[in-house]
C-alpha cells in the first residue's frame, strides 16, 4: 500500500471516528419517551463511552439500549412504570469512573448499565460497593470484572476471555496451528484483555508480539517483524476502528497466505468493513456471538432493520445490550419494584435459563450469588469467517465451540 493510499484511508477513518463520536453524543440526547407507561419513572443509569477509546462499540450498544427502553415503554413499561435513562460518559478512562457513577446515582439511578472499556468498568467495582447499586456490563468480556473482590453487585452476560482462550485453542488444534504472531494496539482495555486471554493459551507458542498506537498510520514495520518470525497464523487484538482496518490491510498485503484471527471488535463494527481495502478481510476469522439460527436473534434483526433500514447489520453489541435491559426489567419485576437495591440484586441472582438474543439457539443466561457471569456454556460464541466482499459469510467450517465444556 502506498503512502498516499494509506493517508487517504487514515483520513477517512478519522472522519468515521468523528462521526461515531458524534452519533454517540446525539444518541445521549435522544432520550426514550414514556410510551404507554404512565407511572413514576424508574431511572436506569448508563455509563456510556461515547467519545473515548471504547466509543466504536459502546455507541452501538448504547443505541440499542435506548431502543430496548423505548420498546419496553411502548408496551406499558415495567409494572406500569416507564424506564428512564440518565447518561454520562467516562471516555473509557478509569480515573473518571467513580465520579461518573456517583453522578448517575445522584440523578436517582436504581441500577446501572456499564457500557465502556473493560479497564474502566473494572474500576467501577469498588464504587458500586460504596453506592450499593447493582450493575450489568452488557458487552464486558474480562473475567476479573465479576471476580472477587467487590464483585457482589456487578454482572456480565457474554463468555469471557477464559472461554475465548478455550475456543481459540480448539480452533488452532483443528487447523494444525502451533505458532502465533500477535499484532495489538496500545489501549489499556486491550492490554488487560491480552493478559487474561494469553494466560489461557498455552496450547500455542507466541513467536512474535508487536504493538502499535491505536491512532497509528503505518503498521508495516510491526507486520514485517511478525512475518520474519514465521508464525502459522496471526491474531489481531484491538478495540477495532482505524487500528483494526489498518492492521488487516497491512497483513492482507504483506502476509496474504497466512491465516488471520481477530477478536469480536471487527465483526461488530460494520462501518469498518467498508473502509478495508478490497478483499483485505477475506478469510479473516473473528470471535463472534451472532448466530442467525437463533430465533431471538432473528426477532431483533427484524426490529433493528425496521428501525434503521433493511441494510442494518446486527452485532453482538446490539444483542447483549438488548438482553441487559430486559434482564433488568425481569429483575425489577421479581423484586416487586426498583427501590430496594438489595432485593433488586437478589432478583438478578434468581434469574435462571434466560434465553439469550445472542449465541447459538439453545444458549441461555443464568445468575446466582456465586455466578455473576451469565453465560451457560461456550456456545454463546461462534467463530465467523469473512468472505471476499469484506462481510462475514458465516460460521467457520473448520471448528465451532460446543455448548458444553
UniProtKB/TrEMBL annotation:
Q: Is this entry keyworded DNA-binding? A: no
Task: Write down the superkingdom of origin.
Answer: Bacteria
Q: Fetch the InterPro entries from UniProt.
A: BCAA_transport, Leu-bd, Leu_Ile_Val-bd, Peripla_BP_I
Q: Which residues form the Leucine-binding protein domain?
A: 41-364
Annotated keywords: Amino-acid transport, Signal, Transport
Signal sequence span is 1-27
Q: Does the keyword section mention Zinc? A: no
PANTHER family in the record: LEUCINE-SPECIFIC-BINDING PROTEIN, PERIPLASMIC BINDING PROTEIN OF ABC TRANSPORTER FOR NATURAL AMINO ACIDS
The entry sums up its family as follows: Belongs to the leucine-binding protein family.
Q: What is this protein called?
A: ABC transporter substrate-binding protein
Which organism does this sequence originate in? Dactylosporangium fulvum
Q: What is the lineage of its organism?
A: Bacteria, Bacillati, Actinomycetota, Actinomycetes, Micromonosporales
